Amino acid sequence: MNDTSRQQIWVMRHAETAWSLSGQHTGLTDIPLTAKGEKAASELKPWLSKMNFSTVLSSPLTRAMTTAKLSGLESQVQPEPLLLEWDYGAYEGLKTDEIQKLHPGWDIWRDGCPKGENIEQVHSRAQQLLEKCSKIEGNIALFSHGHFSRFIIATWLGLPALCGSNFAIRAGSVSVLGYEHANKVIWSSGSLPEGPGVGR
Fold first, then answer.
1. CATH assignment of 9-191, given 3.40.50.1240, 1.10.1040.10, 3.40.50.11310, 3.40.50.620?
2. Which end of the chain, N or C, is less packed with Cβ atoms under 10 Å?
């Protein structure tokens, strides 16, 4: 395994889409960024231009790939299926209150999604992704989605997957993972200029 003690992993959720704005669960549906989302992704350039990324990986879905490209990393970005969002199955496109009318008391972190993925399956993907990252030299940029970014952070910190529910990942947010001495930490997190978002 490489010495990654100075490595940083930048985890970026894609910028705004119509469904992230409305709060609809957006798993594998391939929808574009809004005009506001495109502008916010472009405004990420000054942040990322200060970093030297050896590897840039993105969910293959349009909203993530477009965020990566507009942020100035078009020449480096490679699609990575492990970065796909939680497969919401039968709940794709629905808002939480709509799902709870069908399944009272539903909690995705406990109940998962019928015809989609459960928490163990998504956690396994996060583990595979970070194992892949551990074999890469240099800083890494990851472009993904709301729920899956939470799995990445929880897994990085050695927390149970359920603890991902305690991290808020807004559309257009940036989280920087790294080390303090030998300890895995979150160095910083923030949002692109579009401000708070909702949904997935």
1. 3.40.50.1240
2. N
